[in-house]
Design goal:
The protein has 15 helices and 22 strands. It is an alpha+beta fold. It has a six-stranded mixed sheet, sandwiched between helices. Strands 7-8-11-10-9 form a five-stranded antiparallel sheet. Strand 17 and strand 18 form a beta hairpin. The N and C termini lie far apart (57 Å).
Length: 479
Amino acid sequence: MLKPCDRVVVGISGGADSVCLFLLLLSYRERVPLSLAAVHVNHGIRREAVEDARYVEELCRRYDVPFFLKNADVRELARKEGYSEEDAGRRVRYQAFRETAELLGGARIAVAHNSNDNAETMLFHLFRGSGLKGLGGIAPVRGEILRPILCLERREVEVYLRSRQMEWRRDSTNEGDAYRRNRIRHHILPYAEEQVAGKAVAHMGHTGELLRETEDFLEEQTREALGKCTENAGEFCRRIGVEEFLAFHRVLQKRILFTVMNGLSPTGKDISEIHVRDTMSLFERQGNRSISLPFGIQARREYGTVILEKIPLSARRAGTWEPEDRPLLRIALGNEIFQGPLVYDLGDWGKMEFMGLSIKKGWKVPAKRYTKWFDYDKIEECVVVRSRQQGDFLTIADREGNPVHKSLKNYMITEKIPRQMRDRIPLLAVGNHVLWLPGRRISEAFKVDGNTERVVQVRLLETKFCEGSETEEENGGAH
């Protein structure tokens, strides 16, 4: 990890792990010359944050280590950018570490993840659905980021600090179960070690290492495959030969697509298996079709080639870009909708606008006829704008309030929608599940409820079939 005379920026929260890391690096410095500096980030969330910063500053003063403080309003950043507070905090921390490393003329960055953190990360990724890279957990070294105590369990850290008679700060946000990671930490991992395997954390660490080695090998194979089937067609456009692509194993096909999409997106965070699977369909079926992906990436097939292209944000917001011969519109709703509205041109149907919003508990859903609000986190697949098709259904509430499925055909008959109008109404759907029949009702399955934290607002604009005013509402609670 380190060689003599390296410069090292240490992230110190004041908690047990980071204090342990700090002391171990100080001990290592006695044998190998190192230049150490410490960074502490005040997230602006907890009342005791100021005392945490003072503690770290005093610790650094005691050992004559330069101290850098970064103050941030993580809660406000999360609200503005559409991130969770956990994610926003992580971004702020690593930005502060990198800025300090640059200020010092280039330095390695040491952070204090331990083997319990690694096990929690592996389980978190497993439960959410992940590829090999996520299941491999946390790497000891990734670029300039070092994790020197990844081999230690949390209990070992605390034993070491007590042996040094060293106090540490306790983060109150780690005590409760508000964060999903805390639930794994407090309930799932302890149960696994008590009831399944006493060394579960250590065993998961070994498994993670094997998975990371496998990932490294597949990464080499993917780079070779990319050179054989893809070509650049501009700064934000990649062409993939269908015949060459289909010659590879399906595992490599998925990795090729993920790599290409990653290269076209700013972070790759919102590119997932769903988007790769949808894009795979372009290679497997004939016909000129297109798919809308996060970050304005559009995938379309033109004869023997599939083209992935990033469309300028200005064109998407104006609704002026539209691929040729599009029978339907597929939209993968990523975090970018929380940065501003995106408008899609539906041709004769008008336009449809999507925008993400973070809401507080008790938020009342407005009564609008052609603007609807859905629970963002309940939508796990691409949404599709299209006309009706066989097998479509809505989820509605019966007289007892229980959700039941009702075929779209029967619903249209019950609502006395004229036969000649039924194919002219644009539906918003996930597969055959209709989220919204504009002007009529939305599905109970995607409604905003008391647990909703993020919503996607959908508006139908400039459409010719709309009748009545925007504020009209039918079917009561269905809206």
